Amino acid sequence: MKDIFGKALLDYHNGNYSEDIITSTSISGEDILPLPYLFRDFSEMPKLEQRALELCKGKVLDVGCGAGSHSLYLQKKGFEAKAIDISEGAIEVAKQRGVLRTEVLNILEETERFDTILLLMNGTGIFQELRQVSKYLKHLKSILNPNGQILIDSSDIKYMYDPDSYRDEDGGPDSYRDWIDANANYYGELDYFISYKGEKEIPLKWLYLDFQTLKLACETVSLQCELVLEGAHFDYLTQLSL
Ligand SMILES: C[S@@+](CC[C@H](N)C(=O)[O-])C[C@H]1O[C@@H](n2cnc3c(N)ncnc32)[C@H](O)[C@@H]1O
């Protein structure tokens, strides 16, 4: 990893903001990820994130914290929050912004236990591929205190494919779903490309999971999975517990 994401966060934090991050995926063209969005305060967060923060209890782990916006909010509310990220630049920024507990760490290496584990801004992305979901869920479960909760947001990105092009004579969502299943890996598995100031990151794998598939995966590792809130654009917040 070249840590392009971290470099962009550091630039923004140090007052060198001149460009945004450019993203694209295996199924979509170029898009802009505005750097200020990664420094959002509570009032600028989507409703799903606001609800997740309101549900927090006890000691919180902010997984893939980025610039640390969620941890900062929680700290101000009096919570003990630990922010982890694999990006050194992100952790440097979170630290400089005032997050008290930070660590450059892959979630799979975390060994402390928590009452709330937060994975926000398409939290399932970190799982990368459908076949890895149970490995991540089992690990998250192993670092959860008995009455703890895991709060994850994601989206059902079926809408990003064009169903009208693939309807058979019967039409309908089932035949469309069959088509997706027969012709590809899970439709939420994307290759994700980011570039910033002309530099390209090594392509990442990024997973969007629909709620039913996540619920099924949770059942296989004996986690309860409740739908907390749905957003306006096929996005949702879910709460997992033991
Ligand atoms: C979409 S960003 C979200 C940042 C932040 N949560 C927010 O909402 O602004 C995803 C973050 O997850 C981090 N990440 C990816 N895989 C990770 C892993 N296995 N363990 C910890 N962090 C990871 C990335 O470096 C990145 O900062």
Automatic annotation (TrEMBL):
Keywords: Methyltransferase, S-adenosyl-L-methionine, Transferase. It comes from the Bacteria. It comes from Hyunsoonleella aquatilis. SUPFAM superfamilies: S-adenosyl-L-methionine-dependent methyltransferases. The keyword Mitochondrion does not apply. This is Class I SAM-dependent methyltransferase. The keyword Transit peptide does not apply. InterPro entries: Methyltranfer_dom (IPR025714), SAM-dependent_MTases_sf (IPR029063). GO terms for biological process: methylation. GO terms for molecular function: methyltransferase activity. Residues 59-158 form the Methyltransferase domain.
